[in-house]
Description:
single chain
Amino acid sequence: MAKHLHKGDERRRRWKIIDASRAGDPSVLPQLLARLDGGETSENRRHIVRALGNIGGPQAEARLLELLASERGPILGEVAQAIGKLGLRRASSMLRGLRDHESEWVRQNVGFALKQLAIRA
């Protein structure tokens, strides 16, 4: 797997992010977090959020909770899914507040996340 997630064009960076996500490699977490804040495209940011959900750990969890509170667009669907996958129960009230989100994508993923959190209860 490529360890330098910042190199290459958008497509090449996306595939590096996807590979890191599939591998669940925590060694790339600092790079993922930096790319999330570093002007990455919206599509790549969504892949980074998925990777955070696959990698997990305190830093990934904290960043996902920040994103849940600060983001407004379709990326919330990926954030909700990652939170459900990781079982972050402290996000339950924020997720419940998104059940009526304007985006069907977000609503579906919020539903998934809330079900996952209920299963883990």
